[in-house]
Design brief:
The protein is mostly beta strands and 201 residues long. 9% of the residues lie in helices and 58% in strands. Strands 1-2-3-4-5-6-7-8-9-10 form a ten-stranded antiparallel beta barrel. The protein is globular and about 45 Å long.
Length: 201
């Protein structure tokens, strides 16, 4: 009963984000795994410039992410968000993505490494897309790196986008942390400055 309540509460926090609702999802994920039976909710936002020419076109990208601990070494995640132009205030939905993440190395004295894969639908993928995941945490300092090779499925031929993130994972308690990061697609084609708050139930 307690676990069911936690899952319903987590979903209840994400649904408003879907209803309020992106171009580039912030990854908002590290190699850290949530434990079996736990659920985490992350609420965050990115700030990005979508300008094509010299005129800036800043947008906010409020996002929400749910993670489910299928085991201590396997997590299932769902991610959604919105894109809100700062010049017009008009929101649009970024889409939704899901992924499975597997812990490979977890040494509190050195590094944590996780690998994964996923897919989704939305403007982030220019319709449908799939991606891989590599997450590396430096456990002696709260620094993390993330890499997602992304393949949009509706393009002409095979194209691989390289989504990279670097950031700080600041532990606020055993159940809560703050992620501060910079995400980029194809090393500067798109840049998003992100901040997210994650809590585990």
């Amino acid at each position: 009963m307690k676990r069911t309540f936690r899952v319903l509460l987590a979903i209840g926090l994400v649904v408003p984000m879907i209803l309020l609702s992106g171009c580039l999802f912030n990854m908002f994920q590290t190699a850290k795994m949530i434990q079996s039976g736990d659920v985490s909710v992350l609420i965050g936002s990115g700030l990005m410039d979508l300008s094509i020419d010299e005129d800036p076109a800043w947008a906010l990208t409020p996002q929400a992410r749910l993670n489910f601990g299928l085991s201590d070494t396997i997590n299932l995640g769902l991610h959604t968000g919105a894109l809100i132009s700062l010049s017009t205030g008009e929101p649009s939905w970024m889409g939704i993505a899901g992924d499975l993440k597997f812990s490979v190395v977890n040494d509190p004295e050195s590094i944590s490494l996780a690998l994964g894969f996923g897919g989704g639908y939305g403007v982030h993928f220019l319709n449908w897309g799939v991606f891989g995941e590599i997450y590396l945490d430096l456990n002696v300092f709260p620094l993390f790196f993330a890499y997602q090779p992304t393949i949009p499925l509706d393009g002409d031929g095979i194209v691989v986008w390289h989504d990279v993130a670097i950031g700080l994972a600041l532990e606020l308690s055993e159940k809560a942390r703050l992620l501060i990061q910079v995400d980029t697609r194809n090393l500067a084609f798109l840049i998003s400055y992100g901040i997210g708050f994650e809590i585990v139930f």
